[in-house]
Every structure is written in C-alpha cells, then in structure tokens.
C-alpha cells in the first residue's frame, strides 16, 4: 500500500517570497511522484513529475521539486511566488507497475499582496 | 487537441434519484480513471477502465456505483439512489496506453454533484 502526507493544509506567503510545500510518501515499492495544481472550480493540472534520473525536477510556472529517497520526500519549491499561484496543490504517487494515483490531502497556497 | 471533457459540470439531484456523469478522454487516449474529491479532502481513486473493460474498481463503493467505457462514446459513472454523502466533485482522467504508471494522467474539469 502507498500513502502520501502533505503536512501543511494551508500556507500563506507574501508575494515575491519563496515557498516550499512539503510532501512525504510511504510505499513498499518504488514510486513515481507527481505534483498537480488545482485552481478554484477547475480540474487538476500537472505541474511536474519524477520518473527517474536527476532528483531535481523542473516544472511549469517556475516550480521545481526534489526527490529525496532517504527521506521519502518530494517537496515543491518556488523562489518567488506571484498572486496567480494562489491555488490548491496536490502531491501524488503511483507505485511501479500500478496505474492509480494516490493523492495527499492538498495544501492551499494563499499569496498575500 | 481538446482536453478531457466532462459533463455536466454541475449536477443537482434529490435523494433517491440517479446521477450519470460523462467523460470523454483526450484524443488517442484509451485509458480512463475516475476519482472522487470530497469537501476539504484530496482525490480518491475509484475505478480504472479501458475500452469495454474494467481493469481496477478497488475504489468503487460496493453498492449503487457503476462505471463503463463502451467501445463507442464516453465513459459513464453511474450512481443509483443517490444519498447526501455522494455530494462531491467527480474527476475523470485519461492517459495513453499505460507504461507501468509512467504515463501522465490528464484531468477533466470535474462534475460537481450536489444531492439535496
């Protein structure tokens, strides 16, 4: 079985400040890792994914995430946030050979002008 | 290339009625997934289908819920005799032929079901 923990349900950040959204996972097998963003009343959009190779993954909108196998983490970062980054962010995993995503409970990012 | 389409976007039903949610995958995608998002929670996997086949329905409630993906037409998630606890956002995702989980799932805008 696999699970995902997003420790922060809400994160307020001032505009142009850096942000880190935390994600930890547990799985008995190797996993693929994803971050999705959900804007109000919309579906989910893929920000970035880690499949293999370099542990630092760059995504859209200036976001990046680092896979840390020893700490079973996949934290999402952005050096300078913008008002348009206000949204809910979901971390998700898929175990090797599986097809169903397991999601965390989400982190609501609020940007303060 | 149009994205994943879902309709209706909003659906209101009274307790005991049936709800039918439709999902048209992206062009070229043969795999469809349904997820449910309860208020203030993350998405939970319900079912994974390929054309005319249910591959994994481990997340589907045992009663009242069913899903299909016919040879022609959209995938349908059907909820019979809805109850208030079924109120949620239902998201459909699609992917190309799967390579062990590596293929990205692309999500539709969701159907928000409200049961009165």
What is this structure, in a nutshell?
Chain A has 113 residues and is mainly beta.
Describe this structure in words.
The complex is a heterodimer of chains A (113) and B (116). Chain A has 113 residues and is mainly beta. The mean pLDDT of chain A is 93. In chain A, strands 2, 5, 6, 10, 11 and 12 form a 6-stranded mixed beta sheet that branches. Chain A has a 4-stranded antiparallel beta sheet with strand order 3-9-8-7, with no helix packed on it. In chain A, strands 1-4 form a two-stranded antiparallel ribbon. Chain A has no helices and 12 strands. The relative contact order of chain A is 0.33. Chain B is mainly beta and 116 residues long. Chain B is 0% helix and 48% strand. At the A-B interface, strand 5, strand 6, strand 10 and strand 11 of A face strand 4, strand 5, strand 9 and strand 10 of B.
Topology diagram in text:
The complex is a heterodimer of chains A (113) and B (116).
Chain A: E1 2-5, E2 10-14, E3 19-21, E4 24-27, E5 31-38, E6 44-50, E7 56-58, E8 64-68, E9 73-78, E10 87-95, E11 102-103, E12 107-112
Chain B: E1 5-7, E2 10-13, E3 19-24, E4 31-37, E5 43-50, E6 53-56, E7 65-68, E8 75-79, E9 88-95, E10 106-107, E11 111-115
Parallel strand pairs in B: 2-11
Antiparallel strand pairs in B: 1-3, 3-8, 4-5, 4-9, 5-6, 7-8, 9-10, 9-11
């Amino acid at each position: 079985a696999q699970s995902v923990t997003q420790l922060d349900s809400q994160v307020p950040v001032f505009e142009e400040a850096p942000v880190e959204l935390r994600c930890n996972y547990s799985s008995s097998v190797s996993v693929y890792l994803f971050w999705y963003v959900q804007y109000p009343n919309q579906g989910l959009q893929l920000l970035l994914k880690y499949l293999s190779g370099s542990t630092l993954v760059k995504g859209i909108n200036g976001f990046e995430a680092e896979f840390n196998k020893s700490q079973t983490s996949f934290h999402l970062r952005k050096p300078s946030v913008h008002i348009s980054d206000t949204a809910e962010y979901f971390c998700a995993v898929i175990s090797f050979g599986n097809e169903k995503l397991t999601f965390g409970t989400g982190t609501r990012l609020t940007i303060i002008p | 290339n149009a994205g994943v389409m879902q309709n209706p976007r909003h659906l209101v039903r009274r307790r005991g009625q049936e709800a039918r949610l439709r999902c048209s995958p992206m062009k070229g995608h043969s795999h469809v997934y349904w997820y449910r998002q309860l208020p203030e929670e993350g998405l939970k996997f319900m079912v994974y289908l390929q054309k005319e086949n249910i591959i994994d329905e481990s997340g589907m409630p045992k009663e009242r819920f069913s899903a299909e993906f016919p040879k022609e037409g959209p995938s349908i998630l059907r909820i019979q005799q809805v109850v208030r606890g079924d109120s949620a956002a239902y998201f459909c995702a699609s992917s190309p032929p799967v390579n062990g989980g590596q293929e990205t799932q692309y999500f539709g805008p969701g159907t928000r079901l409200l049961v009165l």
